[in-house]
């Protein structure tokens, strides 16, 4: 079993540093010693990190990954945790599946010339999924070998050692979200902890969309929400479990 990365790798992580700079990543070097930001460099490094052995994935443009069957990995149209989601296009795009829900998947990805790391939703589109960047030319998933199948996210721990237990009520909310409103400026983080990276600060009285996904760390609840204006997604503090009140959100109960 392997551990699924759900937070941004630090800059010294050898799986995302180029081989010429003390790392083990053989993809193109794009930023000093790093292979990030680049979708190929991240996905290749993430598999190396999960398996502990050098992946046989392609290191060429993302659009060539799915068709490169010489790697010997199983292909599927059904998402699996840890799988590489592949899209066609001018250069294509690849990302790592970190969450699977009824109408969308959550992927961890890096974008050449853009964000070093982010976690985003990709909604169902036809027989596949639409990439966060709008690419609809979905190809499929490259799946991890069975012996490296990943541990689900609720087995992870945060930096304080508390177990992170996720919940998914998307079947109740469907495509119509519940709307929360911030009572004050509120940090939106990439991980359910005060140690998580702040993705944005949602201002007071900002509407946030909640689709039923969240996490409980110790006795603290965190809601995974989408900013109605910026469309950014992340975790916001939801108060103590069973307290009956979320101190910084209206219309929410932890």
Give me a quick take on this structure:
The protein is mainly β and 254 residues long. 7% of the residues lie in helices and 34% in strands. It has helices at 39-51, 170-173, and strands at residues 2-3, 75-76, 84-87, 93-100, 104-109, 118-125, 128-129, 138-142, 150-151, 164-168, 178-182, 186-189, 198-202, 207-217, 220-227, 233-240, 249-250.
Q: How would you portray this structure in words?
A:
With about 250 residues, the protein is mainly beta. Helices cover about 5% and strands about 35% of the residues. It has helices at about 40-50, 170-175, and strands spanning about 1-5, 75, 85, 95-100, 105-110, 120-125, 130, 140, 150, 165-170, 180, 185-190, 200, 205-215, 220-225, 235-240, 250. The protein has a seven-stranded antiparallel beta sheet with strand order 2-8-3-4-5-6-7, with helices on one face. Strands 10, 11, 14, 15, 16 and 17 form a six-stranded antiparallel beta sheet that branches. The longest helix is centred in the first third of the chain and has 13 residues, at about 40-50. The radius of gyration is 18 Å and the shape is globular. About 40% of the residues are buried. The model is unreliable at about 150-160 (pLDDT under 50).
Blueprint of the fold:
Elements: E1 2-3, H1 39-51, E2 75-76, E3 84-87, E4 93-100, E5 104-109, E6 118-125, E7 128-129, E8 138-142, E9 150-151, E10 164-168, H2 170-173, E11 178-182, E12 186-189, E13 198-202, E14 207-217, E15 220-227, E16 233-240, E17 249-250
Parallel strand pairs: 1-9
Antiparallel strand pairs: 2-8, 3-4, 3-8, 4-5, 5-6, 6-7, 10-14, 11-14, 11-17, 12-13, 14-15, 15-16
């Amino acid at each position: 079993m392997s551990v699924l990365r759900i937070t941004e790798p630090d800059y010294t992580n050898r799986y995302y540093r180029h081989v010429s700079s003390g790392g083990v990543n053989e993809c193109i070097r794009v930023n000093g010693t790093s292979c990030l930001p680049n979708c190929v460099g991240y996905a290749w490094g993430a598999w190396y990190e999960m398996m502990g052995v050098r992946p046989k994935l392609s290191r060429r443009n993302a659009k060539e990954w799915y068709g490169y069957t010489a790697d010997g990995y199983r292909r599927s149209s059904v998402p699996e945790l840890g799988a590489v989601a592949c899209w066609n296009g001018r250069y294509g795009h690849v990302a790592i599946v970190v969450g699977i829900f009824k109408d969308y998947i959550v992927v961890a990805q890096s974008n050449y010339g853009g964000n070093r790391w982010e976690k985003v939703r990709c909604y169902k589109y036809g027989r596949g999924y639409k990439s966060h960047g709008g690419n609809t030319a979905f190809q499929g998933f490259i799946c991890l070998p069975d012996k490296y199948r990943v541990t689900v996210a609720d087995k992870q721990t945060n930096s304080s050692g508390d177990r992170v237990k996720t919940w998914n009520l998307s079947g109740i909310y469907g495509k119509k979200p519940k709307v929360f409103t911030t009572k004050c400026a509120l940090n939106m983080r990439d991980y359910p902890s005060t140690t998580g990276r702040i993705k944005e600060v949602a201002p007071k009285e900002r509407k946030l969309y909640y689709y039923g996904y969240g996490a409980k760390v110790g006795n603290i609840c965190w809601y995974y929400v989408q900013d109605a204006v910026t469309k950014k997604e992340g975790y916001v503090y939801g108060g103590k479990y069973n307290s009956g009140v979320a101190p910084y959100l209206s219309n929410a109960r932890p």
